[in-house]
Amino acid sequence: MEERKFVALKKEENAIKEFVKNYLGKGKVSKVQIEYTPVGEKVIMFTSKPGLIIGRGGEKINSLTNVLKKKFKFENPHIEIQEITNPNLDAQSVADEIAMNIESKGSLKFKIISYRLLKQIVDAGALGVELQLSGKLPSARARTWRFTKGYLKKVGDSSKVVDKAISIAQTKMGSIGIQVSILHPDAKIHDKIDLTPKQIKVEEN
Questions:
Q1: Contact indicator for 143, 204 with CB cutoff of 8 Å
Q2: Residue 32 to residues 43, 58, 114: CA-CA distances in angstroms?
């Protein structure tokens, strides 16, 4: 019975997290955490755009607080904002940025957008990065493109410290899935890393 309650609680938490992200809009929130305290529920939102989340005079926060009370029966929700100081090292922020750029500038520019974001991530100090785009891409040869640079372990203990995220761009041609994996500069891994400048690697499948 306790296990069922735990599973039900996690399902509800995931639903709340998705609702908060959709309510605020793509690219506004990277991650949402929920904590239960003796005085109420704490909703922690990680974002690189705190001003857009808070709104003028805190109007957006107040609006979201009221929605959480009504829709999810929160008794005393408290919303806390955690600012992401370097969004180029946050996988979800990057994935959403690529998706929004493709939606606004067109899917024909997906390579330019991907190269630019890849460079920004590397310049921010990432040890390794992989951007994977798949779906309705304007390419005669490939439906999946990978843009990679640096060191990125995909299996074993080292893969657990890789920050991963996904986002979806909706275009006239259809949906494009974006997967982002970033190994942070301060990641603690067992493997020895010895990087030298290399050309950006691009794969087509």
A1: no
A2: 7, 18, 26
Domain shared by 96 and 124, yes or no: yes
Q: Six-digit token pair at 169?
A: 């761009």
Q: Are 40 and 76 in contact (CB under 8 A)?
A: yes
List, for residues 140-195, the tens digit of each pLDDT value.
666 899 999 998 876 555 556 899 999 999 998 889 999 999 999 988 766 545 54
- Shared-domain flag, residues 136 and 71: no
Rounded Cα distance between 164 and 175, Å, is 20
The pTM assigned to this predicted structure is: 0.84
Report the SS3 class of residue 199: coil
Dist CA 20 CA 8 (whole Å): 18
Token representation of residue 88: 């180029």
**How far is it, in rounded angstroms, from Cα 41 to Cα 20?**
14
Closest-CA residue to 182 (of 107, 108, 132, 140): 132
CA atoms within 13 A on the CB side of 129: 29
Does 73 share its domain with 61?
A: yes
Please check whether residues 66 and 108 belong to one and the same domain.
no
> Amino acid identity of 49?
K
Number of domains in the chain: 2
